[in-house]
Amino acid sequence: MSKRIRRGRLVVISAPSGAGKTTLVRGLIARDPRFEFSVSYTTREQRPNETAGVDYHFVTTARFEQLKAAGEFLEYAQVFDNYYATGREAVETLLRAGRHVVVEIDWQGARQVRAQMPDCCCIFIVPPSVAALESRLRSRQTDSDQVIRRRLRDSLDDLSHWREFDYIVVNDHLEAALDELAGLASGRLRRNRVGTQRVARRMQRLLGDS
Ligand code: 5GP
Fold this sequence. Notes:
Blueprint: E1 10-14, H1 21-31, E2 35-37, E3 40-42, E4 56-58, H2 61-69, E5 73-79, E6 82-87, H3 88-96, E7 100-104, H4 107-116, E8 121-126, H5 130-140, H6 145-159, E9 167-170, H7 174-186, H8 197-208
Parallel strand pairs: 1-7, 1-8, 2-7, 3-4, 8-9
Antiparallel strand pairs: 3-6, 5-6
Helix pairs in contact: 1-7, 5-6
């Protein structure tokens, strides 16, 4: 007798740049083998520390347009000067096989995924303060002050979309944030739900000083 496989959970994780999202997402996947990372398509240049097919599928703009026209994308967006997208079929196959799938995408993509798959769990990672965000952006960039200021502005703009998510994770202490992310992603935890007073106050404290 064949056993019916329970469909996996689709977990959407977004964050403004400088919130520490990549470390948290990697930690989640490393910690819990039920989660699978969805490898996105991008038209941006491969960075030296990245592996094709593992970090991203690196494609030309022409190929990206072709896939988009063929309806292969669950969502797509332009972020900074490049295009990014999530492949529909890969995500579907994993979910059908009972795997939990993590898509790490920006808020524009999160909005599109939610419209098509309302059951997904959308988590927004935020920095503990705007000052912490700025210092993270500064510490990892060799960029000019002007570029850093632009990134900070972009990050603050991203942050303004927090209400479109289900849960907020404040990345203050890495281990605590990882515990919280793992709990929310697996459905075990329901803490820091958007719409609660607690989260409204937390976000006001965060954005009030921007
Ligand atoms: P990076 O180029 O630094 O890896 O990513 C830049 C931004 O693009 C990040 O905010 C990241 O979440 C977003 N991103 C990465 N993959 C996707 C995707 O498949 N779809 C969308 N909408 N955004 C993505």
